[in-house]
Specification:
Largest sheet: 9 strands, mixed
Helix content: under 10%
Length: 149
């Protein structure tokens, strides 16, 4: 169990391959609203900082069929350097959390997920995943061939 405080964003009880993208989803919604401008977010697995990613201000989490709808809707983003990143979570099981880190390097959760987090508190934003989670970076928002269904 992680020592990092985070708000549970989503829970998956069955292994599900997911795509996390620093942009709106196929319905032009998002799971995390960071700010109304380009920004970044970090990813923690267990208690360890693993990666940093670029975002257009949002974070969306989609299963593979939803992501394929996203690819069709935003086809101009495929194969381009868009300024936001995406990654794959193969066979993910467990919780996905969101946390803030304030200027004192303390993990905070005193924000509302229904509004831009950085407009509420002065912090950086991170996603948290359970120990053992695998992250596969995606180039230009394309699913690596060994994960295609």
């Amino acid at each position: 169990m992680s020592k990092i405080k985070s708000k549970v964003l989503k829970t998956y009880d069955e292994p599900t391959t997911l795509v996390v993208i620093g942009f709106v989803d196929h319905n032009e919604n998002s799971d995390v609203m960071i700010t109304d401008d380009e920004t970044g977010f970090d990813v923690y697995i267990g208690d360890n900082l693993e990666e940093s990613f670029c975002s257009g201000g949002d974070i969306s989490i989609m299963n593979l069929p939803e992501f394929k709808m996203w690819q069709k809707k935003f086809s101009d983003a495929i194969g381009e350097d868009t300024g936001f990143d995406s990654f794959l979570l193969p066979n993910f099981k467990g919780y996905i959390g969101v946390t803030g880190i304030n200027i004192n390097n303390e993990f905070i959760i005193d924000f509302d997920l229904d509004n831009f987090i950085k407009h509420q508190v002065d912090c950086s934003v991170s996603l948290t995943f359970p120990e053992g989670t695998q992250i596969v970076k995606m180039e230009n928002h394309q699913i690596p061939s060994n994960f295609l269904i």
